[in-house]
Fold this sequence. Notes:
The chain has one domain (about 5-10, about 40-90, about 115-305): Ribokinase (UDP-N-acetylmuramoyl-L-alanine:D-glutamate ligase, 3-Layer(aba) Sandwich). It has eleven helices and 13 strands. The protein has helices at about 40-50, 65-75, 120-125, 125-130, 145-155, 170-175, 185-190, 200-210, 250-265, 270-280, 295-305; strands spanning about 5, 10-15, 30-40, 55-60, 80-85, 95-100, 105-110, 135, 160, 180, 215-220, 225-230, 235. The strands form two sheets. Strands 5-4-1-8-9-10-11-12-13 form a nine-stranded mixed β-sheet, with helices on both faces.
Amino acid sequence: xxxxxxxxxxxxxxxxxxxxxxxxxxxxxxxxxxxxxxxxxxxxxxxxxxxxxxxxxxxxxxxxxxxxxxxxxxxxxxxxxxxxxxxxxxxxxxxxxxxxxxxxxxxxxxxxxxxxxxxxxxxxxxxxxxxxxxxxxxxxxxxxxxxxxxxxxxxxxxxxxxxxxxxxxxxxxxxxxxxxxxxxxxxxxxxxxxxxxxxxxxxxxxxxxxxxxxxxxxxxxxxxxxxxxxxxxxxxxxxxxxxxxxxxxxxxxxxxxxxxxxxxxxxxxxxxxxxxxxxxxxxxxxxxxxxxxxxxxxxxxxxxxxxxxx
Length: 310
């Protein structure tokens, strides 16, 4: 199996259950509060590791209780943390997450120690990351570092997967280095200026990114599943019907599942099907990393869904 590297954010997720999202100026009573290890980079690393992948995470934590707890949790999940550094002068990154009664979420983040992911940091951990074959990136670390890493590792022949979240415009200089881009609907609109309201607009948005140099566009469409656009055109992969508890980090579970499937050298269509299943299962439990399924759990769910005709 190929090795997976993740260069990205590591956060403390402060998680509140609410009946609905609060409006401006409103005080709303929640029903539960929890702390979970999170951050898109760490989430994707844990997702791939829990499936049995050999995963190396490169990122930064603060020298605080959150950082120590998260470090222990990552190691317990099977993530190799030799390229995780502690920033003495910055706190661990933090995410404030509201989850409503339907399972949808709203998130605000503070970068903290994630700002320590710089080109200098990446040069320090390069020997570790260079052992990996597939690299996952997101947009929760400084853009200067992201652009440096993507260009450097594409030049070294690595397969580059970019989750363009949180949504922001991206230059063609970056997009041309990406083998697989995995935007959700908001990110697809931000990147292309096209509102995805039907199949025609989705095709136009995916094609626009493909024409800007992306190797393949894998649109994560939530309840509609996923759409893959590459040289073979646009293909739809329906979602799996499960009982949704919390959608936090479902996209990260999808990306981790995708990387794991590609590390097993599955064809791209089979890899997307597998990623769809991993993402769906992650919504059946509360939290981010705590909800990532193991390979055994994923295979068991696949058998159950097969018996139900899906």
